[in-house]
Amino acid sequence: MASPRLLRSCLLATLSATLVATAAVTPAQAERGPQTAAAVTFSDTFDGPAGSGVDTSKWQLETGDNVNNHERQYYTPGTDNAKLDGQGNLVIEARRENPGNYQCWYGTCEYTSARLNTSGKFTATYGHVEARMKIPRGQGIWPAFWMLGQDIGEVGWPNSGEIDVMENVGFEPSTVHGTIHGPGYSGSGGIGAAYTLPNGEAFADAFHTFAVDWAPDRITWSVDGNVYQTRTPADLGGKDWVFDKPFFLILNLAVGGYWPGDPDGSTSFPQQLVVDEVKVTTSDG
Known about the structure:
Blueprint: H1 8-15, H2 27-30, E1 40-44, E2 60-62, E3 73-75, E4 82-84, E5 90-94, E6 103-104, E7 107-108, E8 111-113, E9 115-117, E10 127-134, E11 141-149, H3 152-155, E12 162-167, E13 175-181, E14 191-196, E15 208-215, E16 218-223, E17 226-231, E18 247-255, E19 271-281
Parallel strand pairs: 3-8
Antiparallel strand pairs: 1-19, 2-9, 4-5, 5-19, 6-7, 9-18, 10-15, 10-19, 11-12, 11-18, 12-13, 13-14, 15-16, 16-17
């Protein structure tokens, strides 16, 4: 995300030196010749019975609040806020409720939601990383699909690097953002660009595919195949490029925070981030 998003559970998961990436895409794979077809290294189409949880061989759920961004939600375990809909989708739902009496940095939590990552289960180094999703809407709603360096437990954030494939803040219903964060260019100083749908269309109205094509010294962002930015070390003004190593995937739906602002009277709940597929492939040249 656009500033540190490290929950207590994320720290516990990533600080362990025993987290081993089980399915990394290596630089050698990413640099194969143009005659080599792309190979799928990670795929989840979220098939399963309605109400069931995510595949725990691929994802883990983080729990807790997030004081770093002053977000308002508590991320819950199990299927309370993240479950399959029985139609091939993962539904991450933000609610204005707190039946578990969870406590947040500001007191009793006002909202619940969910955040998932693949740390210790899957990492990628280069390739095509995409998610087909329908995002929610409303003031204070903040969905994201992003990546963190697997070495975050050793080097911390932002030295770990962060690649935001897609972020949306609810006051911009037609616009998404793609950003990189690293040492000397983190938080509001992240380097990125925005993509806006034509004719006032809202991203919440339909599914869209958000992707990066990631290679040594180059990351390119696209929406529905439309490229809107490319970043290289030349964009960093001499600062360190920290994107040539394994990263893990994250999906989450935040409520409130410094960037989106808090929900107001115009925000309806529940709100849903509906994820049809997450896929990572090697580059095909």
